[in-house]
Design goal:
Largest sheet: 5 strands, mixed
Distance between the termini: 15 Å
CATH superfamily: Alpha-D-Glucose-1,6-Bisphosphate, subunit A, domain 3
Structural class: alpha/beta
CATH topology: Alpha-D-Glucose-1,6-Bisphosphate, Chain A, domain 3
Order of helices and strands: HEHEHEHEEH
Shape: globular
Helix content: 40-55%
Number of domains: 1
Length: 142
């Protein structure tokens, strides 16, 4: 099964990546997405954080693995469990190149996902992330 077949297009939303855990969003999916988008960011520290869902720590670890696979010399800062506003604050305060927050926001606990931001905590739309992941997956499978 190819990478593209294992990533449901429905997880890429207007403002984030979100789906049912673990059927649509799991460690494989977030590590794949993090590795694909890790090259999107300029050099500089990357912030990773997660919410209080029971699935979030494992998904945050998968995000760190994915980022480390393509950003070997970048400083990865793991904030651990925090709120989304605090995540945004630290991306800006630490002048990070960007960050990934593992959260499904206000959605039910059966869901999880990723909020991805660039410098100054500017949101990167899920539609842009889908195109990038698709492009990276095709390059790797070629």
């Amino acid at each position: 099964m190819s990478h593209l077949q294992r990533l449901s297009p429905s997880i890429f939303r207007a403002y984030d990546i979100r789906g049912e855990y673990p059927r649509e969003v799991n460690a494989y999916v977030v590590e794949t997405v993090a590795a694909a988008i890790g090259s999107l960011f300029p050099p500089g520290p990357m912030i990773v954080a997660h919410d209080g869902r029971t699935s979030s720590p494992a998904l945050a670890f998968a995000v760190l693995r994915g980022l480390a696979s393509v950003r070997s010399r970048a400083r990865l800062i793991d904030l651990g469990t925090t709120t989304t506003p605090m995540f945004y604050f630290f991306v800006e305060r630490l002048k990070a190149a960007g960050g990934i927050m593992v959260t499904a926001s206000h959605n039910p606990k059966t869901m999880n996902g990723l909020k991805v931001v660039g410098a100054h905590a500017v949101m990167i739309p899920g539609t842009e992330l889908a195109a990038l992941v698709h492009k990276k997956s095709h390059a790797q499978n070629a």
